[in-house]
Design a protein that fits this description.
2% helix, mainly beta, Immunoglobulin-like, Neuraminidase, six-stranded antiparallel beta sheet
Length: 586
Amino acid sequence: MNKAVIWTIGIVAVGAIALAEIKFAKHFGEREMAIASSVARTDQPRVSFTRPANNELNVLPNAFISCDLILPNKGRGVDAMTMNDQNILLYRASDKSPVKIAFNTSGAGDAIVVTPHDLLDPSTQYTFEVKPGVKDTGGEWFNPFKMSFTTASGAPMSDYPVAFEKIGNAGATLKDSAYTCLAMGPDGKLYAATFDGRVMRFAIKPDGTLDEAQIIPTILVSNNGPRTVTGLLFDPRSTPENVTLWVSHGQMKINEGRIENADDWTGRISRLSGANLETYEDVIINLPRAFKDHMNFQPVFGPDGAIYFCQGSHTSTGAPDRKWNYREERLLTAACLRLDPAKLTRTPVDVKTDDGGTYDPTSTDAPLTIFATGIRSGYDLLWHSNGSLYSGTNGGAAGGNVPVGPNSPAIDNIKTTTQDLLIRITKGAYYGHPNIRRGEFVLMGGNPTKERDPQEITEYPVGTKPEAKFALPAYDFGKSVSPNGLLEYKSDEFGGRLKGKILVACYSGGKQIIVLNPGAGGNITEAETGIDGFTQFGDPLDIVEDEKTGNLYIAEYGGADGTKITLLRPKEGAVSRKVFIQKVMR
């Protein structure tokens, strides 16, 4: 959620999540534009930094532009309805030939992300502009901004014997809500959950497209109203005739088209069962809930029979901040949690740890415990066949606050946007997001030496060491990518070329599926982008595979024609011509 999702749920964004359809403004009055461009005030919202940076050279051809923003007006983010091809431009500097681009922001509305629809030309200078037609959600226009960068010469691209046919709508467009997560059932059907709490069950046709949905309203009925579902998980004991579905969900809250004003302690893990999943049981109640889109995210069964899920942070970078309504971190936030079904002697289990709650996750008989910490926003989890537990995490945007610690100073209004990462989660490790309730104070890798350090925060004084249990990521996506849905490709399609690789749905920067190749020890050795069918999505949030066919289904949270489920079918014998393969050096 989160720089992530307009979810973010940021889910960055969720990644900017919003139920209202985004309809881009077509015109900006000439008089207002003239006034805006003639006056640039320091109290106006503005771009503070971009990636690539101004005058940067050797930019890779699959780059996207991510803008950090200064938003001086409390409670306001960038107005996504003003992000359009009249107000935000990317063009070839030599002849001003425009580049077709897609627009996005983050869950907190504190970033502008622009993604070209195709690879950029090598050895070419491009110019990027943000015009005053872009506004914040209070109607204040942005100061104009312009920068240029140059792409690398001879950037490596190669033919790649993998390609997918994209069926832009598999038969499941949703106009009145948004798809948030997907799962393949033991009955061979595709299940999808929505932002307002419905579960959709689709029979899959022989060509991979979806039959008309059966709508399962159990969550809404049992909770007397909408709930935002963030995860679906089938119990391994389920059979086609007897299905048990675990559901992660929280309070649905929308304020003027943005996810915010949510009440704390409103997260739940529940079980649905019965022929039509009509039986409802709350298993865990009173999980923390952030003011914005961070909540209890997608659960997964581990090889030990326990359920693992990430609980999102309440802050941008560890200390209460304005954008997240000054809500404090809780004992269970910014962590990977482990639920042991064998210890569920009674349900529901109330896990409220503060504000009058007494739950102790360290108790020997506690069914819900803390497995790993410092995980700001891990929307999905993947237990890979190599034994590793992975999550894609969304970094904190500039403007957050960092707590003071015994050996580290506080940082107010931090200028650094932290990286989006793939982390390999191990028990007891810390992944960089502070939580003073657990005695974790240092953001990411601190700043231990004068040299460039891994995941360093340059605003710390040199000599600031990371927390003792700080673990480096398996892969660094960069900033404002919003990696969300994950899967390990299991099919033998393409001669097994994709088998065992990790597919990541990138909600914001790139709006694509990135393929990661894990090597010895679980770290990533290679990243692949540009596979046919894997680009130009509308806010891809989740991804699932039908292992019988190798077909992929993508939950697209946004897009010009609404939220939908997109089908990707393997194209036998086809070759992708513009794949960029990045070797990861460690």
